[in-house]
Amino acid sequence: MAEGKIIKALSGFYYVKSGEQIYQCRGRGVFRNKKISPLVGDFVSFDINDPNEGYIMEIKPRENELVRPPIANIDQAIIVSSAIRPDFSTLLLDRFLVLIEAKDIKPVIFITKMDMIDDLKNEEIESYKKNYEKVGYDVELLSSKKPNSLPELEHYFKNKVTVIAGQSGVGKSSLLNALNPSLLLKTAEISESLGRGKHTTRHVELVEVGRGLVADTPGFSALDFSNLELGQLTDCFPEMRADKEFCRFRGCMHHKEPGCSVKQAVKEGEIATYRYEHYMKFFEEIQSRKPRY
């Protein structure tokens, strides 16, 4: 019995890396019976039949997992937003952040195309950068004109499994191509009429980038909160998570309750107003969700 990590899933086969060798494996029927699917990122035990082929016998416990993209044991998610085309949106960024926080995955923020905006817009994004850094996030501002400087970002990837999240057209494939030119990932073209990119990736695979592994997949194609409970939402905002213990009532939802420390922090400028407004928008979205039976 050997052990390794699934680095690719394609057409019912799982490609398991063990040492320097990659084995093409199938999953045992017992997984299908239990409705368990091996995922890219899983640590597994497998039997080797032929020199490069085997059967997955056991899936080790997972740290976390995503449904779309289907991947397990992720260390971090790099959210790629663009300063322009498509325009930078704190609402969309916060939606990504909440979904990633809910999975106990560390978020990192990259904002691309900084060379394509004017000074006024630059000041605005620099201000947002400070806000997000105050919350505790790493934020990098990137220029599309200097892709060769991107190896400076390799420390983010070293010894980590990373998913890249962000709407189409923000420069995810360009970023990965710059970090590892041998990948030759097809860069998404911007569709001028739609203002968004065309999807270019079809299967899930972990590829080597910056001495780490990155999921070569669109990432987070579903941006709804269908799996998030109302009680979890506060904990997906780190600045509110830190303040909630000072609220008068345990289980305070920072909505209409008196003696709310979070609302006081917003009033005093300790928590950014737009972050609280987004919290309330997501709160109402989850609250108005139809119950599932």
From TrEMBL:
Keyword vocabulary terms for this entry: Cytoplasm, GTP-binding, Hydrolase, Metal-binding, Nucleotide-binding, Ribosome biogenesis, RNA-binding, rRNA-binding, Zinc
Show which residues constitute the signal peptide.
Answer: none
Q: Which terms does the record give in the GO molecular function aspect?
A: GTP binding; GTPase activity; metal ion binding; rRNA binding
Query: Residue ranges of the CP-type G domain?
Result: 63-223
PROSITE patterns membership: ENGC_GTPASE, G_CP
Q: Which residues bind GTP?
A: T112, K113, M114, D115, G166, Q167, S168, G169, V170, G171, K172, S173, S174
Named cofactor requirement(s): Zn(2+)
Q: How is the cofactor bound?
A: Binds 1 zinc ion per subunit.
Q: What biological process terms from GO does the record include?
A: ribosomal small subunit biogenesis
**What is the stated purpose of this protein?**
One of several proteins that assist in the late maturation steps of the functional core of the 30S ribosomal subunit. Helps release RbfA from mature subunits. May play a role in the assembly of ribosomal proteins into the subunit. Circularly permuted GTPase that catalyzes slow GTP hydrolysis, GTPase activity is stimulated by the 30S ribosomal subunit.
- State the protein's name: Small ribosomal subunit biogenesis GTPase RsgA
Q: Which gene encodes it?
A: rsgA
